[in-house]
Amino acid sequence: NTVRARKGDGPIRVLADKLASVNSINYRKSDGRLFVAQVFGGDGLWELDPAGVKPPRSILKDIGGLNGFDIGPDGWIYGPLWFKKQVVKINPDTGELNIVAAGFHTPAAANFDSKWNLYVLDTALGTVNRVDIKTGDKTVVAKLDTSLDNLAIDSRDRLFVSNMADNGIQEVNVVTGRARKVVKGDLAMPVALSAVAEGKRDVIYVADVFAYRSVDGTTGRVTDLQRSHAADSHVDYASGVSANDKHVLVINSNGTLQKYARRDGKLLAEWKALRGLSSALELPDGTVLAAQVGGLVRINASGERKQVATGIDRAQGLTFASNDSVYVTDVAGGQILQVNLNTGAKRVIVGGLKVPQGLAIDQTSRLITVEFGKQRMISVDPKSGLITELASGLPMGLRSAERADRSIGLTVGQAGTIYVTSDVENSIYKFSKQ
Length: 434
Hints:
Layout: E1 3-6, E2 12-16, E3 22-28, E4 33-38, E5 44-48, E6 57-61, E7 70-71, E8 77-81, E9 86-90, E10 97-102, E11 107-112, E12 118-122, E13 127-131, E14 138-143, E15 148-153, E16 159-163, E17 168-172, E18 179-183, E19 192-198, E20 201-207, E21 211-216, E22 222-227, E23 238-243, E24 247-252, E25 257-261, E26 267-271, E27 277-282, E28 288-299, E29 305-322, E30 325-330, E31 335-340, E32 346-350, E33 356-361, E34 367-371, E35 376-380, E36 387-391, E37 410-412, E38 418-422, E39 427-431
Antiparallel strand pairs: 1-2, 3-4, 4-5, 5-6, 7-8, 8-9, 9-10, 11-12, 12-13, 13-14, 15-16, 16-17, 17-18, 19-20, 20-21, 21-22, 23-24, 24-25, 25-26, 27-28, 28-29, 29-30, 30-31, 31-32, 33-34, 34-35, 35-36, 37-38, 38-39
């Protein structure tokens, strides 16, 4: 929501604040005028004072999701409208808008090279397109994996493309269409895990924010199941996952909960407008128990919701205690609770924890969780509340150990193997009994 500037070692200046979802920024080299655009949480184009003295000036509102943009040879702003499948140009003085090209699926970014060729990414199709700004004609110059995010063109007209699902950057040859990997991660932003035994191996389902994936617990091999914004994808931004032998539940950050068939990946059911979801479990009767801000709700096949428990400030990890009760971590309260699904009654298993996160139960019926605030993994006896430290000094806490910027996933596989995510390394750690 804030745009800041700094010159050399000088002080940091605030140029604008309270601009929801300000996302793209560029300046006009001919006169130094600075522009920013809002997309997703807001929708507008603004001019900012580089000195931070004058207030932001609104150029145009409700555009249709102006994303990564550039300045054209005529001084106009050229950019993609994410929600309108168009590339447009906007006069920064008057707000006049003209369509340059249409017919994209989900255009994500646009940049000029030194010869004023305009290149546009289509994130849903994974294409890099060259657009004639006079005629609007489009030419596909490269086909990459989907979930493209942004592009940059250097002084030698080398084109670089970032991919959100791959956590990577590629250099694209616009003549041959070939791509060279600059950097690539196996995972994007893993935040939740759920392991299912398959023969002698664990299959770990991963909510990876920009993708929904599976990982072979033995080899570490990663398989894409759904990628964000791909043309054939159902997921938005995956923020939670829970799997059993038959089904996988995926929570999306837009408040959508989905049920997939584990064997063939088919989408079986979808429930929308479930804000504040953090985790979910499929109950034996086929209904779904979901953790929301404030408590637990039960969802039936038709989407009807029934409050199960309240008074849980930030319910996070969920795991079964019995057929009619579950264990849940209360992040804000620093405790693990047992909740009766019939009465909503809560029993404190252990308190005084510092930012507890994911939760699972091992073969000895002990609870396993990550105490984020102490960067350690612990086990808890559900009867006595006795804590045993299993591992310390875990790589988590991207900015600090006081605040979790994103959740830490944890799951227990067969033979007691524990898998834990790292927000610092975007990785999954495997802990095996010795």
